Amino acid sequence: AQSVTQPDIHITVSEGASLELRCNYSYGATPYLFWYVQSPGQGLQLLLKYFSGDTLVQGIKGFEAEFKRSQSSFNLRKPSVHWSDAAEYFCAVGAETGRRALTFGSGTRLQVQP
Amino acid sequence: EAGVTQSPTHLIKTRGQQATLRCSPISGHTSVYWYQQALGLGLQFLLWYDEGEERNRGNFPPRFSGRQFPNYSSELNVNALELEDSALYLCASSLSPTGGFDTQYFGPGTRLTVL
Question: Is the pLDDT of residue B99 over 70?
Fold first, then answer.
């Protein structure tokens, strides 16, 4: 069964600083990887996804993520954080067989200091 | 293009009652997924419906059930409510799976509070 680990529960960065959120996955085959963002009390918004091809994927709001098979990682990055980026970020992996459900990490809460 | 919609936004019930949550998928999507986001438990898969059939369910008791209608909208029913059912229930939709994995798009959720 697949699993996702987000080692950082809470991260605080200053506005304008760069950001990297870590995600490690466990899955036997080529994974389908996603990053979602959730503002308090809201649903999940898709930031970006990786299915195949170029290992550096671009998403919305200036985010990007890099798939590294050798490290089983899919870290999310942003060069300059804005106060509106404060939210909770979830990494998820999907399987093409079986239940087709997303397996989520426990999330990383991002706080942005002025 | 309209996204996934869910109703109601908030729902307050007492223990032992039944709750019904509704979801309308993105136009053209035939698969609907339900997830529970409870405090301290993270996001957990509940149910998957496609083309009107239940395709799979997560590790939840049978009192969690649902259905999908011919227009692909879906209903989640929770019977005999317990305090620990208090959570944000998220619905997602995707194209019908034909191979690979289809991206799931989420609605705003229904906040269920059980008193």
Answer: no
**Beta bridge mates, B65:** B77
Task: Give the tokens for residue A51.
Answer: 């299915």
Distance CA B7, CA B77 (A): 13
Please answer whether residues A48 and A57 qualify as being in contact, where contact means their C-beta atoms are separated by less than 8 angstroms: yes
Strand order across the B5-7 sheet:
B5-7, B19-24, B74-78, B64-68
- Determine the Cα–Cα distance for residues B43 and B64; give it in Å rounded to an integer: 16
Query: CA-to-CA distance for A38 and A11, rounded, in angstroms?
Result: 15
In tens, the pLDDT along B16-40 reads 999 999 999 999 999 999 999 999 8
Residue A63: both structure tokens together: 């985010």
Nearest chain B residue (CA) to A102: B45
**Which residue, among B10, B26, B37, B43, would best test binding to A if mutated, counting the most A CBs under 10 Å from its CB?**
B43
Q: Do B104 and A102 touch (CB under 8 A)?
A: yes
Q: Across chain B, which distance is largest between two alpha carbons, in Å?
A: 43
